[in-house]
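From: lab user (bench 3)
To: helpdesk
Subject: output format question, protein + NAP

Hello, I'm new to running complex predictions and I'm not sure whether the block I got back is the full result or only part of it. Here's what I submitted:
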Amino acid sequence: MGVRQARYPDLNGRVVVITGGSRGIGAETARAFARQGSAVAVLGRDEKALAEVAEELRADGARALGLVADCTDMAALASAVDRIERELGPVDVLAAFAGGDGYPVPTARETEEHWRAVLDGNLTATFLTVRAFLPGLLARRSGSIVTMASTAGRLPSGASAAYAAAKAGVLMLTRQLALEVAAEGVRVNAIAPGAVRTERTAAQMPPEAQAAVAAAHPLGRLGEPEDISAATLFLASDASSWITGQTLDVSGGRVIV
Ligand SMILES: NC(=O)c1ccc[n+]([C@@H]2O[C@H](COP(=O)([O-])OP(=O)(O)OC[C@H]3O[C@@H](n4cnc5c(N)ncnc54)[C@H](OP(=O)(O)O)[C@@H]3O)[C@@H](O)[C@H]2O)c1
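Helpdesk reply: Thanks, we reran it on our side. This is the complete output you should expect:
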């Protein structure tokens, strides 16, 4: 079943940054903002994939920029901020979506190195991304930040404890920050997706596994990247102007069972 994308006229002309925009949920979210008339910067580590997404957006008439920036590297993020502001203008919306590696690891066999990498790649990367873009949003006293959690950060699941802890950390970072900056006109909300079918997850899950995972979601299907982009547009737009510090579970009801 397709997802109907609403129109948000206020997003037309807004400058939107999407980390993790080179593929998967982030790339689809970039397309969704471009269709609203937003100018879009996609950040990630894969230069070729970023260039392809940016080219596709430009071919569809959007102002778009693909920038290599590892979100665990503050200096790389700082130069991305400079370049985006120079080429697209001041940032209005930040979708801090970079992250991943929720593969199951029994805690008894977890390594210190992998634990630190997962925390770094999800929680610290989200903090550094927010830290890099927040001063600009605060200076203009407006903006919306959307962070990326997961059902794994809401309830125990098959993911590694490191991923669960990192995504739960993203949720508390989101709520804490929302309270800090609310009076300064900046909103901060999180999306917590259930299992979403991206190129990566589709390649990793044989059809029987996909059916089993779909059945664990009360609405009986896997999520599509469009389910997440639809929620992101809403949280970015003025349609949600009285909503901050919230977690939007986009998970087919996964967290109610
Ligand atoms: N798919 C799901 O079922 C699901 C469910 C819940 C939550 N999520 C979360 O949603 C987000 C996107 O997931 P996805 O499934 O779309 O994943 P994906 O297809 O594997 O894409 C991950 C994206 O994050 C980027 N990224 C990862 N680490 C980065 C870093 N250190 N610096 C910059 N970019 C980085 C990747 O960029 P490069 O490839 O260019 O390096 C890529 O664009 C992740 O935070 C994930 O944890 C996904």
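A quick orientation on your result: The two ends are 22 Å apart (CA to CA). Let us know if anything else is unclear.
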